[in-house]
Design a protein that fits this description.
This protein is α/β, with parallel strands linked by helices and 479 residues long. It folds into two domains: 3-32 and 56-213 and 254-343, Vaccinia Virus protein VP39 (Rossmann fold); 353-478, SOR catalytic domain (Immunoglobulin-like, Sandwich), CATH 2.60.40.730. The protein is built from eleven helices and 26 strands. The chain has helices at 46-50, 68-77, 129-146, 162-173, 223-228, 231-234, 274-284, 300-307, 319-332, 396-399, 408-411, and strands at residues 25-32, 36-37, 43-45, 61-65, 84-89, 98-107, 112-122, 147-157, 178-185, 200-207, 218-219, 245-246, 250-251, 290-293, 311-316, 337-343, 353-354, 367-370, 374-377, 382-393, 412-418, 426-428, 430-432, 446-452, 456-465, 470-478. The strands form five sheets. An eleven-stranded mixed β-sheet has the order 13-9-10-8-5-14-15-4-16-1-22. The protein has a six-stranded mixed β-sheet with strand order 2-23-21-25-26-17. Strands 3, 18, 19, 20 and 24 form a five-stranded mixed β-sheet that branches. A hairpin with a 4-residue loop joins strand 6 and strand 7 (112-122). The structure holds S-adenosylmethionine. Residues 67-68, 90-92, 120-121, 268, 270-272, 295, 297-298, 300, 315-318, 321 line the site of S-adenosylmethionine. Belongs to the N(4)/N(6)-methyltransferase family. This is Type iii restriction-modification system methylation subunit.
Length: 479
């Protein structure tokens, strides 16, 4: 033990989070095989789209809707100890803020619009310091258990709390395993006349041990270096390298996502740029590594990991974060992935609403009403199935926040179809998405599918609405 590791952060309730007696329930909610459409009228041919490969591939990633403390306990108890080569986290910062995701609803015909502000998460203020430390301390300890021997943890924070967390990380990982304090500098936004603009975040990087994975990253040489060359200034030993100069621990070349029209902008507060995650993932993991983000937000880590050939697990407890991540990965057209839930008390799955036994809409719950499906033979082996959403009603409490009585098309974010619902896990085979990020009434609420010819169908439809709620209906059809 290093001498400095005897120095620890103390607070009265330190170590009070006890997990042992909690009973953890795990449930797979959805198996998602991304196959998206936004079309209104053409036939969506599942066979051509998927080469008949429905549900054959192993999922490459797992999204968990959960408190990450429970999830990490579940992972440790279920064979994931020492499995992750990289964990990146971007937790709350003790910033005293309530983070909302604001989106626009618009009706084309009479040009009315409104904004919906959806709560995502609440960050503690300095009076919640003790609560914050009690939150982060046991979680960081579990992350260490989950890291492989060559694994790394990157903790993204800012000036509010990073110095306290650094001391906790030294205690948990040992200061000898502290590799870098990366300073990410960015511009934009407003400033204060009482102090310098606060325009950087800190990313604390710890290795589990000495043999951590590291692939050096490079930046372009400055114009001056390129003009002069290195040899003249530093001597004969120094030559310019083709890859560029070795990257330092301060990064000024990646901007925050500021423009509301940026393609990357998913209207998720605190969303981090893909370029930032790309640098971290490339530096500290290998192709095929298992990586995680336990505070996933909009799913940046999963999206970039997928692009770079890593397997991933992400987790968030906010429905808007989960929904944003789901939609992002479906749009990206990634390989199959799952949506799973961890809770500390078993809750049976919500009872699906059957067409034959139509549930009366309750005044508070959301409900979905589909038209009875129309199914016509197409040829000897396939049929054409027409699915139409007749009505959708969002939860009463959510509707109260709107100024107008919006049509149901405005309130649906996206919807999915399981052509062969097994009564247990929703197997999302087709997803109907919006083209744009404005919630106008152009969303397609019908779909014509060419499907294998059968005598009976049990089709499930799941709608995600703009408030982050999901509702399912099962349609049964027989010849
Ligand atoms: C700063 S945001 C992450 C943003 C993300 N890096 C991105 O690029 O979009 C923090 C996220 O942590 C989630 N969160 C906070 N406490 C959590 C907990 N105990 N378990 C799971 N998620 C949590 C919040 O819901 C929020 O989405």
């Amino acid at each position: 033990m290093l001498k400095e590791d005897k120095i620890k952060l103390h607070w009265d309730s330190k170590g009070s989070t006890i997990l042992d007696e909690k009973e953890i329930a795990h449930q797979t909610i959805e198996f998602i095989n991304p196959c998206q459409t936004s079309s209104n009228d053409s036939i969506f041919d599942l066979w051509i789209q998927k080469n008949d490969q429905v549900r054959t591939e192993e999922p490459n990633g797992r999204i968990f809707r959960a408190d990450n403390l429970l999830l990490m306990k579940f992972l440790i108890d279920n064979g994931y100890r020492e499995s992750f080569d990289l964990i990146y986290i971007d937790p709350p910062y003790l910033s005293s803020s309530a983070y909302n995701s604001t989106v626009k609803i618009k009706e084309t015909a009479n040009n009315t619009s409104d904004y919906v502000s959806r709560p995502v998460f609440l960050d503690h203020g300095t009076d919640g310091m003790e609560e914050y430390l009690n939150h982060i301390y046991p979680r960081l300890k579990m992350m260490k258990e989950l890291l492989s021997v060559k694994g790394s943890l990157f903790v993204h924070l800012d000036w509010h709390i990073s110095h306290y967390v650094k001391i906790l990380l030294d205690e948990i990982f040992s200061s000898a395993n502290f590799i870098n304090e990366i300073v990410w500098c960015y511009g934009g936004g407003s400033g204060s006349k009482r102090h310098f603009h606060r325009k950087h975040d800190m990313i604390l990087w710890y290795g589990k041990d000495k043999e951590y994975i590291f692939h050096p990253q490079y930046r372009p040489y400055t114009a001056g270096t390129l003009e002069r060359g290195l040899t003249r200034v530093k001597g004969d030993k120094y030559q310019l390298h083709q890859e560029g100069a070795l990257m330092q621990d301060w990064w000024t070349d990646i901007n925050k996502i500021l423009s509301p029209t940026a393609a990357e902008n998913l209207k998720f507060p605190t969303q981090k740029p893909e370029a930032l995650l790309k640098r971290i993932i490339l530096a500290a993991s290998n192709q095929g590594s298992l990586v995680a983000d336990f505070y996933a937000g909009s799913g940046t880590m999963a999206s970039v990991s997928q692009e770079l050939g890593r397997r991933w697990i992400i987790c968030d407890e906010s429905p808007i974060a989960i929904q944003t991540s789901l939609e992002r990965l479906i749009k990206q057209g990634v390989g199959p992935f799952t949506l799973e839930e961890i809770s500390d008390a078993y809750q049976p799955p919500a009872e699906p609403c059957f067409q034959m036994r139509q549930r009366e809409p309750s005044p508070v719950a959301s409900y979905l009403r589909m038209k009875p499906p129309s199914i016509q033979p197409f040829n000897e082996s396939s049929a054409l199935m027409l699915l139409i959403i007749e009505d959708y009603k969002a939860q009463e409490s959510n509707l109260a926040s709107l100024k107008e009585d919006w049509g149901f098309k405005n309130l649906i974010d996206f919807w999915e179809v399981d052509l062969n619902y097994d009564g247990n896990i929703f197997n999302s085979e087709v997803q109907v998405l919006r083209d744009k990020k404005v919630y106008d009434d152009s969303l397609s609420t019908s779909i014509k599918l060419r499907v294998p010819l059968r005598n009976e169908y049990q089709v499930a439809i799941k709608v995600y609405d703009i408030f982050g709620d999901s509702t399912m209906q099962v349609l049964e059809w027989s010849k």
